[in-house]
Amino acid sequence: MMLEITLRHAFPGFMLNAAIKAPPGVTVLFGRSGAGKTTIVNAVAGLLIPDEGRIASGDWVLLDTGRGIRLRPYQRRLGYIFQEGRLFPHMTVRQNLGYGAWFAPKDAPREKMDHVVDMLGIGPLLDRRPAALSGGEKQRVAIGRALLSAPRLILADEPLAALDEERKAEILPYFERLRDEVSIPILYVSHSATEVARLATTVAVLESGQVVRQGQAAEVLGDPAVLPMGAREAGAILTARVVAHHSDGLTELDAKNVPLFLPHIDRKPGEMVRVRIAAHDVMLSRNRPEGLSALNILPGVAQEIHLGEGPGAIIAIETQAGRLLARITRRSVQALELVPGAQVHAIIKTVSVAPSAIGGGGPEKR
Amino acid sequence: MTNWLGPDEWSAVALSLQVSFWATLVSLPLGVFVAYALARWNFPGKQLLNGLVHLPLILPPVVTGYLLLLTMGTKGPIGGFLAELGIVFAFRWTGAALAAGVMAFPLMVRAIRLSIEAVDPRLEQASATLGASPLWVFLTVTLPMTLPGILVGAILAFAKAMGEFGATITFVSNIPGQTRTIPSAIYAFLQVPGGEDSALKLVIVSIVIAMSALLLSEIVSRRVAARLEGR
């Protein structure tokens, strides 16, 4: 199933004009606040009626202004996970979870309540009311409620933005499980590079109402010309397999036959992981450096070189392990005589990779 | 109680309760509907409807009563039509209930409207995305969350109906056993020598009923609020 979205909508002082294709898996709408991400999701949900547009997946047409088709929100069969949860305060967690299922067609393929409760770890909360839940618990219940409504598509509008770092780390794995264990496509709005790196199968980058880049996550995040959140947030993703946990606390990974050493990762050998390598954590050297403390030295070839407006530059490096981004100064670009095609070594300090930058392997393993 | 109250007084109390009960019960669905329309919908003539609903609150009650007499009396345009169907308001207890209901309506609508406006529309959106049609959204989200307000509105209306005097006496007069509610009865007792005793008893009954209604609404709305807060 491929969800195709074409929208045109004029706001005072802002024009949304976007075409997005969302294949199975997680499609992240990535961009700054005000770029039009939530507008798109609301249009898909039917909470906003665009001036013009078509939203359809095969012969399942949610909206087609040209043909005068416009399903009401309750006819769309979507699971919308809102930023603020929006649980019904007068119902228990159990009633909240069952709410959508009650309205779903009886023959709709649906998740089992027990399985979802288990997956989200909300069993002990079932008889409580939302007011007695923590922020993270509320959001887990909201995920379950959306999932149990037998949706054909899940929408998530910055579901982690209202949570602190600890809670985010608590919820992110559930979205990874959703992506990997449930076959429902997910449209996910985010302005967090970490979330994109961990969750996205496909990324659509939005800037002031336009889609500036769209494609596979590794491809889009590895493009130095596409930096929706600025050079400071740039970073590429590598997919790797856990090889072994060493006694000194390091985990050895294998990224397409290139060994990577990272701080301990809580996953079993053989599992696939996605690692986000921030561009500012990558150093470059023309010769293979020696006597260096950094454990990961990846030979590669410089590709695009993107000079910013400030003193910095972002270099894309094609290595055997995958594409990396490095953020260095323009001065260094000159000093190293970096041009596309130049041989370089990318150096990644082991300790610079935070645990939050490592997620489940997800779609790439399938 | 029947011994303490004479038959005339008892009749006034029973009639008042009957009139107020039916006035509240019948106007409640309409009150919820009008409050919802005023709180959530935009339509031409909204301000007119709002004004119309509030009119009994600002007009002298006698004027409202007289207008009711003109329109709903057996010779009035609406009253005449209804009379042919066998529904007669003039000089009957039903007329007293109508007058009380009309006079209490603004209070009821105000209370309910406030509580509907306090329901977060984003919860109603969430309900819609989960597959609830507008009617189901109203029944499963808006209505239960508005319940305390509806209750307060109903009790206010009931209390107002118990005390209604001007419009009632103008519209349906002061007929013992038919339209002589507590306020009319108090008024009538005070017009005759030696009636102060009976009047005072009815005053006490009024106070007791009003206070119990208030207390009841307080208890129930606290319970509901506690439930919403997860306690």
From TrEMBL, chain B:
The keyword Nucleus does not apply. Keywords: Cell inner membrane, Cell membrane, Membrane, Molybdenum, Transmembrane, Transmembrane helix, Transport. Residues 13-215 form the ABC transmembrane type-1 domain. Its main location: membrane. Signal peptide: none annotated. GO terms for molecular function: molybdate ion transmembrane transporter activity. It comes from Paracoccus onubensis. The keyword Ribosomal protein does not apply. Coiled coil: none annotated. Belongs to the binding-protein-dependent transport system permease family. CysTW subfamily. PANTHER family: MOLYBDENUM TRANSPORT SYSTEM PERMEASE PROTEIN MODB (PTHR30183). It is found in: Cell inner membrane; Cell membrane. The chain crosses the membrane at residues 20-39, 51-70, 90-112, 133-159, 199-221. It is a multi-pass membrane protein. This is Molybdenum transport system permease.
